[in-house]
Amino acid sequence: MTAQTIPPRVLLIGAGSIGAVYLYQLQQAGCEVTAVCRSNYAHVKENGFKLLSVRYGNVTYRPSRTIRSLSECADEIFDFILVCTKSFPGSKPSLPEMLATVIRNKSTAIVLAQNGIMIEEEVAQAFPENPILSGVIYLPAVQTEPGTIEYRETLNLLELGTYPADAPADHKAAALNFADLMVKGGGNAKVLEDIQVARWSKLLLNAAWNPICALTLCSDGDFLLSSEFAEELAWEVMLEVIALADKVGIPGITVEVAESKFSIAKRRAKEGTGREMSMLQDIRQGRMFEVEAIIGNAVRLGRRHGLKMPRLETFYALLKGRYEAQLKELRHGSALK
Ligand SMILES: NC(=O)c1ccc[n+]([C@@H]2O[C@H](COP(=O)([O-])OP(=O)(O)OC[C@H]3O[C@@H](n4cnc5c(N)ncnc54)[C@H](OP(=O)(O)O)[C@@H]3O)[C@@H](O)[C@H]2O)c1
Ligand SMILES: *[C@@H]1O[C@H](CO)[C@@H](O)[C@H](O)[C@H]1NC(C)=O
Ligand SMILES: *[C@@H]1O[C@H](CO)[C@@H](O)[C@H](O)[C@H]1NC(C)=O
Which domain of life, per UniProt (predicted)? Predict the structure, then answer.
């Protein structure tokens, strides 16, 4: 970077597993990153983050600025606001309400680096002129204690695209700029013409394996080995997602794509290297999980289109019950403190 370049200013909302890794990449790329921390605030303010990784080595680093509340930066203008919280549609305050505190300029791009489908609409409605960049993440990382992130594989890909796909040229330019920064910072990033295709490809994996792992406490590989009915169940969920994509006009969500996604779990079963999906990790740790963004949005969309999705609807009903039970446990727990 030359001396006269102004570093890109980024606000990170959700400095957890993914947020902390992206923070590292953005700082490596020369960005000035303000991080809003919640439960790890005190730790990060004092010690920064510790990233244990193969890709970047074991490193310690601090955000350019660590804050506790968005109101602390309400008068600043950012080039990018990177949202790496879990996606909880319908939560209070809503994401648009949170963003309203910090969006001062219509050129500030909002990057949604989150799983699920149909997570962009409420943000786009609230900020119709700002670039909305929708991101699909392939990066297995977990915050094992406040400020400590374990990232043991080298996989690192951010697929990025504007929402909607036919956004104005300056929105596309913002997507290219952000992808560039992620690559400069040592990661991989791709800008796609239609990010929904990528989002739905990822949904094939998430809709099948997150519920199965969460409800059985199995890894994907172990589940496949558990009975002669296991493979059919997981595969039929993928077929339901394919049918839904077809019904709502998302191109490219084919049996071939599903087969290639499915083969990952089959290989893990064979090698004994099954993955514990994030929803399972959340349930183990008594945390809220993304049942609405990943499963609820899909089954409701199916119902609106008159599509029967018996497997996925069953998963949704069971997981939603588990979710409500978990919420009760959390409330009870905090009432006791
Ligand atoms: N981790 C992975 O391997 C992975 C891989 C692919 C995709 N993803 C997706 O990436 C997204 C982020 O996942 P993650 O694993 O990074 O989740 P995470 O580890 O739970 O991190 C989320 C962070 O956001 C913080 N947060 C939540 N609400 C906030 C608020 N209102 N204000 C400030 N901070 C807030 C959380 O704070 P608290 O600690 O206080 O809750 C936490 O630090 C999800 O959509 C996930 O599905 C994750
Ligand atoms: C990083 O730390 C872990 C343990 O925390 C250790 O197993 C690993 O060898 C370290 N890696 C490097 C490159 O130092
Ligand atoms: C918005 O940001 C752009 C680019 O940083 C800047 O040129 C413009 O002056 C800003 N507008 C306002 C109203 O601050």
Answer: Eukaryota
